[in-house]
Write the C-alpha cells for this entry.
Amino acid sequence: MNIINSTKRFIVLTVSSFLISFFCSANENGLGVATNWGIDLQNPTTEVAKDVYDMHFFVLIIITLITLFVLALLIWVCYRYSEKNNKNPSKTVHNTLIEILWTAIPVLILVVISIPSFKLLYKQDVIPEPDLTIKAIGYQWYWGYEYPDHGNFAYEAFMLQSEDEVEDNRPFKRMLTTDTTVVVPVNKIVRVQVTAADVLHSWAVPAFGVKTDAVPGRLNETWFKADKTGIYYGMCSELCGVNHQSMPIEIHVVSDSEFAAWIEESQKKYAVNSEEILEMSSK
C-alpha cells in the first residue's frame, strides 16, 4: 500500500512539474528579467547562453526518459509481483546479466552527457579576442565598474529603492534597477574581469549565461557577446552579507553609435570620481 501511495505521489509531482514548466515562462516582455512563478531559464541572448539552454534541455530529455522508465518499472513490479498475482515468489538473488546492464547503461548515459558538457565548459572558459574589457568590483553591497579600454573611467552602481528615483525613461524593476548602468555594444565580445574589495561576491547575468565569483585579491574573467539590444538584469549570486539582495546588475546592450556616445559622455561625467574609485579598487 505504501508503494502504491508513493507511486501516486510521484506521478502527481512529475506531471505537475512538467505542466508548470510548460506554462510558466522565465522572461518578461523579452527583457532579461525573471517573472513571478517562472521556473524555466531566461531566454538566451548570447551563443554561450543558447548552448547552456540546449544542454539543459538535452539533459532534461534524458532524465525524463529515465524517470518514465523507472515509473513504468515500478508500476509493472507492483502489479506483476503483488501477492495476488505472484502466489509463489521467486527466490532468485543474483542475475549476472542484469547486474552488468544496470552498471554499464548508467556509465554510457554519463559519457553521453559528459562529452557536450566538457565542450561547453571549454567554450565558457576560453575567452576569444575581446573587443572591449570591463572590470566589475564587488563591494558590500554594490558593484563598481571600470572601462580600462576607454580612458579607464570608473563609477559605482547602487540599487534604486523606488520608481521615483529613476532619472530617465528606463523601466523600473524592483530590486533590479540601478542608479547607473553597464553599457555595452551589441554583437561585440566583452571580456569581464571580476574581483571583490571585501568578501566573496558573484557576478551573474542569466540571459548571458555568465556567472563568475568575485574573490578579494584575485581577478577572474568571463565573457559574453550579446546578439540583441535591450536591458538585461543580473544579481550577486554569492551570499555576501546582510544586504546581499541589494547588489543587482543592470546591463544595457546598445548599438555601436549609442555606445560611442555613452562613452564620450561617461568620460566627462565620471572624470571627477574615477581617480578615487580606481585608487580604492587597487587596494
Remarks:
- Residues 22-26 have pLDDT under 50 and may be disordered.
- The chain has five helices and ten strands.
- The longest strand covers residues 132-139.
- The beta strands are 132-139, 142-147, 153-157, 182-185, 190-196, 201-205, 210-214, 220-224, 230-236, 248-254.
